[in-house]
């Protein structure tokens, strides 16, 4: 299996009145069709890293490669899903119209847009809700719409920035299981950011633990759990052992960051 994403010695400095070193000498790879989860203390540059991979801004030092090509701008075959779903949905458009929005910019024919949008809606479990408006849906259902909108144009890479951070705990678990089913079906390369260690271990094939700012890679943990992961796997000794390993690494960084202010 080849590397889909390669991050090489990346440093990111935000210039301005108060210069901020967000990332320093970050290197890692994401293999094709792999599910990588990134965890780290608040402010360690996790979201910055996603923006760099997406080509939304350049690194100050180092480089990022996608399919062997250096990223120098926005990547068309890449999709992003954010935490604040209510800021990205158009409230005056139906579920179907919202999902089709991303396809319009890809210039698909009208019939294909309709077909792709409906397939994506069915994939996220919203069949029958095509004509509903966002304000008629729960938070979890609204986030499903955002995921469907991204999946409709079949991105090769899916970047997710705390996508379940704004939903309740029960809905979050359901969405986690649904996301794994979608990933197994589509086999998209996924980079997923979260603050939740248990979520990271449940979802990821690998979990990258980042240190406090300036963000750096502390350790990459391989999650040796079966690909099929019912929610009950979270009660197993092996799952909890990996959670404790990740949390012990993260705890050190969180405490150190708090002491440094």
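Sequence proposed for the structure above (261 residues):
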């Amino acid at each position: 299996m080849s590397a889909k994403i390669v991050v090489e010695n990346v440093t990111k400095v935000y210039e301005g009145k108060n210069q901020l070193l967000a990332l320093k000498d970050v290197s890692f790879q994401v293999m094709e069709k792999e599910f990588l989860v990134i965890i780290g203390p608040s402010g360690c540059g996790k979201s910055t890293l996603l923006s760099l991979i997406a080509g939304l801004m350049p690194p100050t030092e180092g480089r990022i490669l996608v399919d062997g090509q250096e990223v120098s701008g926005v990547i068309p075959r890449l999709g992003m899903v954010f935490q604040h779903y209510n800021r990205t949905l158009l409230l005056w458009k139906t579920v179907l119209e919202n999902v089709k929005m991303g396809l319009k910019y890809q210039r698909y024919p009208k019939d294909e847009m309709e077909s792709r949008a409906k397939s994506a809606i069915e994939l996220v479990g919203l069949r029958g809700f095509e004509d509903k408006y966002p304000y008629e849906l729960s938070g979890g259902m609204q986030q499903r719409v955002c995921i469907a909108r991204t999946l409709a144009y079949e991105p090769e890479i899916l970047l997710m920035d705390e996508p379940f951070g704004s939903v309740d705990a029960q809905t979050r678990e359901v969405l986690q299981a649904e996301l794994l089913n979608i990933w197994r079906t589509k086999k998209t390369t996924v980079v997923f950011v979260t603050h939740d260690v248990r979520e990271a271990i449940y979802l990821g094939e690998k979990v990258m633990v980042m240190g406090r700012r300036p963000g750096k890679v502390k350790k990459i943990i391989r999650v040796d759990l079966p690909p099929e992961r019912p929610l009950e796997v979270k009660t197993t000794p092996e799952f909890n052992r990996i959670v404790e390993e990740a949390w012990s690494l993260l705890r050190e960084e969180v405490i150190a960051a708090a002491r440094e202010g």
